[in-house]
Amino acid sequence: MAKDSKKEERKAEKKEVKQQKNLPTRKGMSSSWINAGGYLFLLAAAGAFYFVLVQKSSSGGGGLDDGGFLPQIPANLRPERCPASPRNSSGEEVSIIIPYLQEEWFRIQITMRSILRHTDLGLVAEIMWISDGNPPDKIFADELKALHPKVKVFVNEKNKGLIKTKMEASQRAVGSILMFLEPHIVVAPGWLEPLLNRLGEEPQALVMPTLDFSPGEMTSYQKGVHGYWRFEWNMNLIFTNPWGREFSAMAEPFPSPGTSGGIYAIRKDFWDHLELFDPELILWGGDHIEASHKVWRCGGRIEIHPCSRVAHWFRGTEDRPYDVPVSKVVRNYKRLAEVWMDGHISSFYKVKPEARSMEFGNTKDMQKVRKRLQCKDMDWYLQNVDVELAWEEKHICIPGASKAQGGCDKPTPAPSRSTLDKVMPLHEFKKARRKLESGFNFKQEL
Questions:
Q1: Smaller CB count within 10 Å for the chain: N or C?
Q2: Residues 192, 198, 200, 205: is their CA dihedral positive or negative?
Q3: What homologous superfamily is domain 94-319 in, according to CATH?
């Protein structure tokens, strides 16, 4: 019987390893464009894939782990100066919030396995899965609840969209800290404590882990690079590193002009104080822009923590199992631009001309919220948070368009950009950074 059991075990392992056949087998990977949910990111890939067999043991998660497959976590993932075994003794509990729509069960399994194996569940009040209009065969409520007593499944019978789903989940949450995740990730050991510790130091912060990669069928874990999130004038989200190199020794959290919007921690009382989000935003797109401006301009800060690591499957448009209504996304962008861009709104319309004639509703309530919060103006943001965006305002253009239509001098856009044919020169960037009240903690490079 033991031999038969081992034989079946080996068969199962071989079956899971076969999932790797569509992934590159060579070491190294060049920089590549990744389209995630309609945004273009230029993300530099790291040096190698890490292919593995099934991990059998639990690593401290304390959950009802099914012993199934997880990609191996690279040993040198975190900077050396990060604590080997991070601890958090604040006594506060976290509500993990994971909206999902048309997600494959194997990705949900990998996400949950990693949470159960690599999280101190004593810090977690609940793991909330919110099914946003899924058909019955894509809800997986019984399967999810069977994984751990702290798992809760909420079902939106009809699709409400990611924005309203997050708003409702935040109101249901019982934890004092909200931890938003996506349903196709792999959390690394010790991922949660650095975020909680930082929120203890900076209660008015939105803190993100450093994002790594779990490509394809999520059978590997690939180390990411340091950089930060920000926006172009058309509100396109980009990930960039103006210094052009990796800061592998840096273990302190560093500021980011924006958030990608899917994976971050924030205190519930600060979330409520900011009144996230605008209830008139439709379905999907723009919540990360509102969060970026509200947090920075209304008393807080956005940071990325190098000691917290989460691998994300960046889904291309061809892999997206649901439609994103582009016109509604642009409407959301216009609404946000009208509330937050002040005297710079013409720059938005220059590179988003289709938004000019769009209906966007009444923003008086949002203007009142901004006034109540005593938020700083757009000039402050350009001078103190995103100096690149200030430089880019003088150089924005539409690649491929004629000069009369605001076209660029060069036929193709600059790398990872959609509104520029050149980027801010490094020496100008460093000079501008020196003038800021608080740097990006890259002092050795300045």
A1: N
A2: negative
A3: Spore Coat Polysaccharide Biosynthesis Protein SpsA; Chain A (3.90.550.10)
* CB 45, CB 239: distance < 8 Å: no
Secondary structure of 118-174 in HEC code, one letter for each residue = HCCHHHEEEEEEEEECCCHHHCCHHHHHCCCCCEEEEEECCCCCHHHHHHHHHHHCC
Could you tell me which residues come within 8 angstroms of residue 217 by beta carbon, excluding any fewer than 6 positions away? 19, 20, 22, 23, 106
Burial of 340-366, coded b for 16+ CB within 10 Å and e otherwise, reads bbeebbebbbbbbeebeeeebeebeeb
The residue ranges of every structural domain in the chain are 94-319, 327-445
Residue where the block lists tokens 């809800």:
139
Residue 87 in contact with residue 327, Cβ under 8 Å? no
Residue whose pair of structure tokens reads 């994103």 in the numeric block: 324
Segment 276-318, tens digit of pLDDT: 999 999 988 999 999 999 999 999 999 999 999 999 998 766 6
List the one residue out of 172, 184, 165 whose CA is nearest residue 36.
184
Yes or no: domain 327-445 corresponds to CATH 1.10.8.460? yes
> Which phi-psi region, left, alpha or beta, contains residue 90 (left: φ > 0; alpha: ψ -120 to 50)?
alpha
DSSP code, position 188: P
Which residue's entry shows tokens 């790797």? Answer: 20
DSSP codes, 30-94: --EEEEETTEEEEE---S---B-----S--S--S-------PPPPTT-S-TTS-SS----S---E
Give the integer Cα–Cα distance in Å for 377 and 383.
Answer: 10
β-pairing, 205-213 with 301-312? parallel
